[in-house]
Amino acid sequence: MVETKRYWINERLLKISVGKKRFNIAPAILDIIKAYIRTKRVSFETFIKTCERLKSIAKEKGKEIETFIFGLLAPNVDARIFEIVSYAILKYFYHDQTVYFGFQLDKIEESPLKLYKTGRTNANDGGIDFVMRPLGRFFQVTETLDVRKYFLDIDKIERYPISFVIKSEENVEVLTGQLRSGAQKQYAVQAVVDKYMNCIEEVINIPMLRERLRIAVKQGYLREIINEIVRQSKVEFNYEEADDDDE
Known about the structure:
Blueprint: E1 15-18, E2 21-24, H1 26-56, H2 62-71, H3 79-93, E3 98-101, E4 109-112, E5 114-117, E6 130-133, E7 137-142, H4 147-156, E8 162-166, H5 172-186, H6 190-197, E9 200-204, H7 206-218, H8 222-236
Parallel strand pairs: 7-8, 8-9
Antiparallel strand pairs: 1-2, 3-4, 5-6, 6-7
Helix pairs in contact: 1-8, 3-7, 3-8, 5-6
């Protein structure tokens, strides 16, 4: 549980029989989990400290921060980090864009586009990763080209248009072609394939994220982007400063 920082499991489920002997593998599993946590924590603390250092020198060495963020836009980057970085970039890419809404022609109001992150990364909670107001655009971050995953996302929002942020260097046209090819293999009826493919509002790949980062940086949002990456990362990984850690 996040509140208690403790997880509980019935130890009897971790007792196995080999021949006539019975072994309790719970201690060994705990050792493996603790070793994994230590490794991930050290890695993530290094990441956070790097972000904090870059944030502190943003005005003097903005190019170094930009290079650092570019390095996080790669196919081999941790999926959670990639989602967080994608969110920070897109949030400030759309930040200055506005649309006009109103219920009466003489009362049209200008509304800025705002991107919201809806939950934890890789949560498998059936949710959508980002939502944009006031347009109501949905964004889903993924690293797979399994067409079943895409269509599942489309189905769970009743085939409402959705944009996919794909952790891939492949050209957008190639990615879209691969999705259509996969759909045609899964569904024999072309009308069904077309209906699903028409629900894909936009495909955003790594090169597009890099270009949108450049645009956001030119608009003066480099410091805000790195701040957002640090803030979202600390929330995602339940990170606390050493002084705040009871343990």
